Amino acid sequence: MVYSYAAGTAFTMKALHMIVLVGEILLAFVLFLVCYKKNGYEKE
After folding, report:
1. Which one of 15, 17, 18, 37 has the minimum C-beta count within 10 Å?
2. Taking a C-beta distance cutoff of 8 angstroms, is the pair 18, 25 a contact?
């Protein structure tokens, strides 16, 4: 995506790229929640 932008060409988002992108975001969010709960920050 960055390379095509730098080259001045249009980048077409394919379905597989969208799935991978959403999957990475969800994975990062789940890992954050697991670490957050494991450290006990939910208790004020």
Report:
1. 15
2. no
